[in-house]
Amino acid sequence: MRMFRQIAGAVLAMASVVVLPALSATPAASDPDARAEQTLRKLRPAERTTLLHGLSAAWLPPPVPPGYVPGAGYVYGIPRLGVPPLIESDASLGVAWLGGRRGDKEPTTALPSGPSMASSWNPQLLQQGGAMIGTEAHAKGFNVLLAGGNNLLREPRNGRTFEYFSEDPLLSGTLAGAAVAGIQSAHVLSTVKHYALNDQETGRAFHDVLISEPAARESDLLSFQLAIERGQPGAVMCAYNRINGGFGCGNDWLLNQVLKRDWGYKGWVMSDWGAVHQLDFALAGLDQQSGQQIDPQVFFDKPLLDAAKNDAGYWARVDDMNRRVLRSIYAVGLDRHPPKLRKVDVKAHAAVAEQVALQGSVLLRNNGALLPLPGNLKRIAVIGGNADAGVMAGGGSSLVHGPDGPAALRTIGPEGPFSKMMNETYHDSSPIKALRARVPNTQLSFRSGRYLTDAVAAARQADVAVVFATQYMSEGYDVPDLSLPDGQDALIAAVAAANPRTVVVLQTGGPVRMPWLGSVGAVLQAWYPGARGAEAITALLFGDANPSGRLPITFPSSEAQLPRPALDGAETVEPGFVGRGRPGQTLTINYDIEGSDVGYRWYARQALQPLFALGFGLSYTRFDTNCSNPVATPTPQLTCSVRNMGDRAGAEVVQIYLTSMAGTATRRLAGYQRVMLAPGESRELRIELEPRVLAHWRDGQWQQPAGQYLLASGRSSLDLDPPLTLTLPARNWK
Ligand code: BGC
């Protein structure tokens, strides 16, 4: 084998010089493949690895490279050939703050967290959000964004829940695709990440996820497949962890077979920072080594060239790696639309963030129509959550803050270079200030919630108590359980006992338990609501906007309902940002327990009643939905008419679930559409169903068995209308 590679390597080396036909002088800008091919042929030997490895670039010693902006990464360009450097920032929720190292003068806009975006069930809105982030990045000097966080919310304790979208592959994939398309519309290249099955932080650098191929294809992989089809991201970032034994960035099955062969992906695979352990990851499909100083060696420079000299496999890969990076640069237009330092319309950007928070907050309870609050209350007790200062942000590489940094901060640890990005921080959007602006004649009494005594006293004297409750999450750590920390459960229970007109506003990364649910009047799930979170929350509480968010993840009634009641590794792995573990430490996580039945599908399979189901969310109006006429061609689809039955404008999310598949009971979200309706208005919608959701992955292909498919519209995965029958023929496809 080695001998063959050596011979073939020599032949290829000659071929690249002699045999290949000349291409036309200037391929059209719209033909990125031809342009990549042409540039590839012009690369000098010393340039053949320039694009294949990059620096971790939060801080670099002078002299800094051309175009350098402190950010997550930097890859040298090839100016001689007009190939720009890749100037990279993290950006799942906005252009990342980086502990303030950029020294920005201009503001940066934080979108609400991933589950908030996903609660909108609104791909157009996510595309707008992406375009906003892309524009800000371009104006700050970046041309690559490490965005498109798209891991499935398989584990609700995952510390990065707030960076991802949902537990459902269709919802996640369509939304991530829209966000990526939005970013790239600004000529800023986006990733999707972290490919794949990187669904918990504990032991993230080494844990080994076991999952069968059908289960993976129908869940996490389907989510990435959809995101890639819709968003056409220039790059895919592979994950730290192992999947069925092989590291994410050295996983031949995931990278070569699934991504590049089966999905025909033409962009490049970049590593996560510190995720490259060996040179032969290049043969497994990794195209670019990021954050090279963090790895044991800069594998994708001299060692790669040396290997390519003697080995056809490596030789061919070096061509392919370059071709892929170049193709994406041209496809997104990085060379033709270089970043330009400038001011952007920050007001318009803040409005996008506010719109996401308005559409992404979910009203979970509204007993006796406590909400919307009237504008003439005498006194409101505002309790907890640092509501005097701001709204909560999630921590880690994705953290976004403006030039002034956080409005408030609590240290979480650990010490060291990453600590600033791990601290519990708050965006400068103060609920107290927003409430005061909305009801200037109402007396607001704020209590921190640190002591029950004064919180209860304030609640007792008020017409309404609003408790701001928080659950902090950060990259690098999973939460140990789904309780509200710092005694907040007891605080809410005590306040509600003192005043049943208690509204709980949750700012949490993901689902939490609510032992006090039955005793409070209302619950608004605001997630991490971003740069204009307080303004959006206030508008929703007072009915200036009508809540329309629907949960993108199931809330269990307790951890006992989860496929893994105890978090794997919680007792054996020391938490931390890098999380490398002790030498030789292993951790196996069995995802075949639930397989592709992630989240709501698991609850349906096990006949469990969760606290709140996927898709659930209340409104200040009511809707009537009637679906009919399911047809199989040209793509499976049905028609639904939706009417707003109330006297307020509002948005409904029509959700179509597959409940039986050729005689086998199942529960799968097969299609959805959000629609905004004026009072009394009705609209007819055509809802397309995703064919891969109506199929199994078996024996290397999608298989749709012949038979009857039952489809039900629902207000959640558990609140379903009587099903309609769609008859489908047998069909197999790749
Ligand atoms: C994270 C990535 C991030 C990268 C660069 C890693 O620790 O897992 O999401 O893009 O750092 O900051």
What does this structure look like?
This protein has 734 residues and is of the alpha/beta class. It has 3 domains: 2-332, Glycoside hydrolase, family 3, N-terminal domain (TIM Barrel, Alpha-Beta Barrel), CATH 3.20.20; 361-541, Rossmann fold; 623-733, Immunoglobulin-like (Sandwich). Helix content is 26%, strand content 21%. The chain contains 17 helices and 30 strands. α5 (169-184) links the parallel β4 and β5. α5 (169-184) packs parallel to α7 (220-231). The longest helix has 21 residues, at 312-332.
How many structural domains does the protein architecture include?
3
- Residue stretches low in confidence (pLDDT < 50, at least 5 long) are 1-24
Beta-strand content? 15-25%
Q: What's the pLDDT, averaged over the residues?
A: 95
Radius of gyration: 26 Å
Number of helices: 17
Task: Sum up the structure in keywords.
single chain, 734 residues, alpha/beta, TIM Barrel, Rossmann fold, Immunoglobulin-like, seven-stranded mixed beta sheet, globular, disordered N terminus, binds beta-D-glucopyranose
Write the layout of secondary structure elements.
Layout (H helix, E strand, L loop, with lengths): L1 H16 L14 H11 L12 E2 L16 E3 L10 E5 L23 H6 L3 H18 L3 E3 L22 H16 L4 E7 L12 E3 L2 H5 L2 H12 L3 E4 L3 E2 L2 E2 L4 H11 L5 E3 L31 H9 L1 H21 L13 H15 L1 E5 L12 E5 L7 E3 L14 E3 L8 H4 L1 E4 L3 H8 L4 E5 L4 H10 L2 E8 L16 H11 L3 E7 L13 E4 L7 H9 L46 E3 L9 H6 L17 E9 L5 E8 L5 E12 L2 E14 L4 E7 L7 E3 L2 E4 L2 E8 L9 E5 L2 E3 L1
Parallel strand pairs: 3-4, 4-5, 5-7, 6-8, 6-20, 7-10, 12-16, 12-17, 17-18, 18-19
Antiparallel strand pairs: 1-2, 2-3, 8-9, 11-19, 13-15, 14-15, 21-22, 22-25, 23-24, 23-28, 26-27, 27-30, 28-29
Helix pairs in contact: 1-10, 2-10, 4-5, 4-11, 5-7, 9-10, 11-16, 13-16, 14-15
This protein binds beta-D-glucopyranose (BGC).
